[in-house]
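Researcher: Good morning. I'm working through a list of sequences from a screen, and I'd like to move beyond sequence-only analysis. For each chain I'm collecting a predicted structure so we can compare shapes side by side. This is the next one on the list. No need for commentary yet; just the structure.
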Amino acid sequence: MKETGTFEYVSMQIKILDERSLTNYFDENKEILKKAKQKCTTSKEYLEFRENFFLNAEVEFKKMSNEKKIQSINSFIKSDFLDFSNSSYFALYHVGLVSPKFKDIEPRDTSKRKNYNSIDDVKLLNTTKIIFHEYEREKDGEILEY
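Model: Good morning. C-alpha cells for this chain:
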C-alpha cells in the first residue's frame, strides 16, 4: 500500500483466524467456547480450554477439501469480525494499522505513531489476552503485556 500511495489515510484491523473455526464442529459447538470464556479468569486458562476444544475440530478440518475451506471462508459472517467479543472465539491474533497522516487527523487514536518501514512496527497482539485485559497502553502509546 505504501508503494502504491494508498496508505496515506488508512486505519485498518487485521485478524488472524484459527483455521479450525471453518469446521461444522466449531459452528455447532461455539456456545461451549462462549460459556468457557465466562468461567475462565485468565487468558492462559481460556487458551488451554480453547486448544482442547479445537482438537475435536482438527480431524474434520484435515478432511475438508480446499474447495470446502474456501466455501466456508466465503460464508463467514463478516460482521462477526467487527465485534471483538465474538471474534475472540476464532481470532488468534489482532493488529491495528494506522497511517501517520490518519493519526494526525484522528484525535481519539492514542496509539504510538509508526511509519511502518520495518516489520518491527507491526506488533501482533494475542486476541484472548486483549479480551482478558492483559495488555496496557503506555502514555507514549506503546502497548505492553502484563
